[in-house]
Every structure is written in C-alpha cells, then in structure tokens.
Amino acid sequence: MQLASERKEYLQELTKTIRRHIVKMTHHAGSGHPGGSLSATELLTDLFFEHMNVNPNEPDWEERDIFFLSKGHCTPVYYSVLAEKGFFPVEELMTFRDVDGRLHGHPCGEHIPGVDASSGSLGQGLSLANGVAMAAKLDGKPRRAYVMIGDGESQEGQVWEAAMTTAHFNLDNVCAIIDWNKIQLDDYVENIKGMKDFKAKWEAFGWHVIEIDGHNLEEVHSAFEQAKTVKGKPTAILAHTVKGKGISFMENTHKWHGLAPNDEELELALKELV
Amino acid sequence: MAVQKAPREGFSEALIRLGHQHEDLVVLDADCAKSNMTNFFKDQFPNRFFNVGISECDLVGTAAGLAIGGKIPFANAYANFLTGRAYDQMRISVCYSNNNVKIVGHNAGTSAAQEGATHLPLEDISLMRSLPRMTVIVPADSLEMEKAVEAAYYHEGPVYLRVGKLPVPIVTKKEDRFQIGKAIKYRDGNDVTLISTGIMLDETFKAAEALANKGIQADVLHIHTIKPIDVEAIATSAAKTKRVVTIEEHSIIGGLGSAVAEVLSEHCPVPLKRIGTQDRFGVSGKMHELLDFFELRAANITATAEKLVDSALIK
C-alpha cells in the first residue's frame, strides 16, 4: 500500500514536530543524543503511525507488535514518537533525563508505557526481537517484531549472532531497521571500523534486504509494506540517513552525536523547523 | 552409602515434568544440549526448544525476548561462558528489563573436572549475586535440584540456577521443604555453625559427624538460595554458636562466604572462616581429585571448625 498524499503531509508535519521535541528535550536536559535521533525521525514516525499494531491505551496488549530501540541512546526521537502516539503526555517530554522522572537517558522497559525492554548497552535488540518472534510463531499469532539498529552499533558481535538466529529460524516476522547514518560517537564509521559491503553482509546472513533513503517517507513506507509480504526470511531495511538531519549545523558531523544545544543553538534549530 | 545421581539429571527430569504441565515453558541451549541434558526436553517438545548455537549473549537476549512474548524461558549454557560472557545481557535485557528468564549455569564448580580452568566456574555465583533482581539458587543434589527447578518456574522474575554435571550423593530428603530464600536447618548444635551451599552439603554432614565425635556440636545450615540470603537463620545461629564456617565449591570472593560475611558483620559480628576456592583459577582433574586439591573435604572443614572453636575458647 502506497502512502496516501494526505497521510504523507500529516507525517511530514509530524516529523517536524518530533524534531522540535528532540532539540527542546536535549536542550532541557543539557545532554542527550540529537544526531542519531534526527536521522531516525522519518523511520520511527512512519513505523509507529502507519504500521505498528499497538494500542496506546493498552500498552501491554497481548496481540501488539513490538519495537525495540537497540540503539538505546536515541531516546529523544523514541520518547517523542511514543508521546505523540499517545502512550504518555507530550508535556512529559520536558522531563527528559530529570532525576525524578521516568524518561531516563536510555529507555527503561519497566517504567515507560510502550517500551518493552531496556536498552542502552548496544547490540542487544535483535536477540530480543527474535525471542518475541519465536513466541509469536509458537502461539500462531500474527505479531511482528521490529528493531532499530545503528550502523556503528553493528560493530557489536551480538548483532551478527542474532542475525544468524533470525535467518536460521526463518523468522519472517522480524524486521530490522538499520539507521545507516555513517557516523558514530568518535568519527565517521568508515574511519573507526568500516562496514565494507554492509548490504552484502546482511544478504550473506540470509536476510531480505531493502535499501532506501531513510528520509523519503514514501520509500520508508513502501519498505515497511514490502517487509510484511516477505515470507521465509527476515527483512533488513538499510536506510541511508543523515546524522543530525533537518538542522543544518547538526548535519553530518559526529560533534552532535551526544551534545545538547545551548540557548542560542536551540533558537537557531527551531527557526529551521518552522 | 547414599545413592549417587548427577544434578543435571534431576534438572532434566523436572524440566520435562514441568513442560508437560505448562505450555509456556520453553528451553534454549547454546550447543550443549547433550551435555546439559536439555536434549531430552527437545525430544518431548521439539517446538518449544531452541538451540541458538554457540552464542551465549544471543542466547540470553533471545530468552528475554521470549519472556516478553509471554513465555517462561530456561536458558542453558556452561556456567562460565554464560555468566561471564553474557553478564551484560543479563544485566540489561533480563534484570533491568525485569524479564522472567531462568538462567541455568551448567558444568558447575568442580564438576567441570578435567576440562580445566577455562571451564571451571568458580566465579559465577559472585557475578550473579551482584545483579539487582537476580535470585541465585545452588542446590545440594539431584533431588533438591528438582524442587529448585519447580520453584524457579513459579518464581516471577530472573533466577540463576547452578547445575552440576557429575554424580554426587543424594543427601537431602524428599520431605525437606524447599522455599526460595529460606535456609534449611539440618542439625542442631551450640558450638559452631557450619553453613554450606550446593554439593558441599555432603562433606559438611560428614564434618559435623566427625566434630560430634570430638565433642563439638555443630549447627548445620544449608543455604540453597544465596540471594536473597536468609539473614534471620544465619544471624540466629551465629548468635547461639558465636563462630561460623562457610563451605562452598566456588571462590571465597563474592560467593557464599562473602554473602555470610556481609550478614554477620551487620547483624551478628562473630569470627568467620571461609572454605572455598581461593583467589585463583582451577586446574584439570577428576572431580574427587579437585575436591582434594582445593581442600574442600570434610577433613578440611573439621580442622577449620576445630581451630575456630579452640581459638574462641582461649579468648
């Protein structure tokens, strides 16, 4: 199913709102990770608003689809999407990283409605998705398990242990979204420990791979739709993205991996997100 | 002489029994199903068994996902590789996420025998004890193992269960009540408290007898649950006997000895001696040779207890 034009317009506006949340939340906290949140905005917005079978009024509903944020540091975008979807009040976003709040720097599966597992130690999400997918198959339920992984995160060995498991058990109800923004904490991924032929790696591990522009809502939408139709093997959506996307001075630099905007930078950023 | 049986056999039998009763019980292994005897569960319930291959981190993460999906998973691997390699997965995906996963560490203690130091888990209890929300259970024999597996299944929350591979005497009784977090009192005495965990209960019984022959009456406490530890039972006994010896088939750093030291220092400070492996790695050897090598025998317990009693009398 293609993305209808009115939905596309709605989602486009929503991604702007979410980007505003991201900069405001990190500004509020004085810390956090805007870069990898901004790169994942279209992916998570389309996923949660157009594909995920969830009920914000009943977060633990047994038939729900499940999402794991394996790159757990990108809570600004994750919390924003969950709040806009209705899992908790949007106003709560401005308690991000507060000592007396529940929106911790990295997600806590126990406290936040809509969050099913804690993450923040990289590399663990795909194994979780596999487990959920196995349980769904045992129960004969149509539940799907989604997981977002970073390209830098893919240096973690567990990602590949899990990728073998997904393919071996033919878990076609697993969809991995790789936010391929080419930058990690210290530098460009290529300068730290490059992915070489990233697509070939996933294919060699037995996955169906869809390569897209992760900021093009139509491409993102079609990829999720296609993934639902692939049988017998899991799908990896390799989404080319730009770290810091949408705010000119944050784009394409590792400087904004884990840095909060100051007052002046916040103002500049918000001007670009009108 | 007591009947000998491997704790892993009791584990496997209990798992299958529970499997028949509960559809939500699933079992995972990391390519040691034959050794861990989870292959028998697989034979009975092939759909509910997942061998994820040699990848302990993925094993624990997958188990956590199965728990999120509504199952009660038992994740099996050799204790060392499981607790050492997948510690972070237990910390984040299991404990911090509060997932109902049962972690089963096999080849425990000296039962790894001739495999040598790489395979001898002498630090697993210490690691697992430090994890918030983790319950740590170390049964004495095959019979108690069966009760422990059942208790672990019904307990809501993460559990670490330590399972030995080689036959050891069955020293507990069918009627002994197993309750997570509750010590079992096996002998009453006023002169010294012997606190053991796991398969060391056998040597501890022998030591208590030898001590009795010398006129020293030992209180014997069996701690099958190292966390949460039974503070009351330990403090009450220590207050009575005024001296304590701990006995474990694990490093004295971070294991039972440490846990009891913590309890005593806060609740009833009395002299304590810890018997266990010292700050060192293992070696290759038959299990009975290793118990001698590490000085984990009744004679070692008896000598230590006697000395403690004597020194206290001199004071």
UniProtKB/TrEMBL annotation, chain A:
SUPFAM superfamilies: Thiamin diphosphate-binding fold (THDP-binding) (SSF52518). Keywords: Metal-binding, Thiamine pyrophosphate, Transferase. Its cofactor is thiamine diphosphate. Residues 13-268 form the Transketolase N-terminal domain. The keyword Protein transport does not apply. It holds the Pfam family Transketolase_N. The keyword Transferase applies. One of its GO terms (molecular function) is metal ion binding. Belongs to the transketolase family. This is Transketolase.
TrEMBL record, chain B:
Belongs to the transketolase family. The lineage of its organism: Bacteria, Bacillati, Bacillota, Bacilli, Bacillales. It comes from Neobacillus rhizophilus. SUPFAM superfamilies: Thiamin diphosphate-binding fold (THDP-binding) (SSF52518), TK C-terminal domain-like (SSF52922). Residues 5-170 form the Transketolase-like pyrimidine-binding domain. This is Transketolase family protein. The keyword tRNA-binding does not apply. The keyword Cell inner membrane does not apply. SMART domains: Transket_pyr. Keywords: Thiamine pyrophosphate. Its cofactor is thiamine diphosphate. It comes from the Bacteria. Pfam families: Transket_pyr (PF02779), Transketolase_C (PF02780). InterPro entries: PDH/Transketolase, THDP-binding, Transketo_C/PFOR_II, Transketolase-like_Pyr-bd, Transketolase_C.
